[in-house]
Structures are given as C-alpha cells and as structure tokens.
Amino acid sequence: EWAELTFSVMVSDVDESFDDSLSPENIALSIAGKKNTAIQEQLGNEWTQHVLIAADTIVVLNKEGINMLF
To answer: Is the pTM of this model over 0.90?
Structure first.
C-alpha cells in the first residue's frame, strides 16, 4: 500500500514435487518457476500486461531440504 501499487494475489495449484538431486536453492527456484508458468497459463495473453512475482520456500536443516508434505 505504501508503494501505491495495485496488486492481486493469485494462487496456482501446481505439483510441488522436485528432483532430489537439486540443491535447496534450486528446488525453490524450480517450484517457483512452475507456479509462474501456471499463472501465465491462467492469464493467457494478458500476462504480458502484468509483472509476475512467483516464489517458494523450503525448510532446510543441515544443508538438506526437508520434505514437509505429509
């Protein structure tokens, strides 16, 4: 609000599975990329009229990602 920007939060329902050989940083980047692509598909050609910010977080313990899906 302080930046005087209008924004919307869009949720993507993507598969958050990942390649176990990736580093924790690359796991988060991979999942964020999937989310970005899903939102682009939701918006169709209109996505080029928007700034998309996609992100993901993971839990890391002793330099290893922890799969939090139960």
So the answer is: no
Do the beta carbons of residue 52 and residue 38 sit within 8 Å?
Answer: no
Q: What is the pLDDT along the chain (70 residues), one digit of tens a residue?
A: 577 888 889 999 999 998 888 888 899 999 999 999 999 999 999 888 888 999 998 887 776 666 655 4
DSSP state of 27: H
Report yes or no: 37 and 56 within 8 Å, Cβ to Cβ.
no
Enumerate residues 6+ apart whose C-beta is below 8 A from 52. 36, 39, 40
- What CA–CA distance (Å, rounded) separates 12 from 20? 22
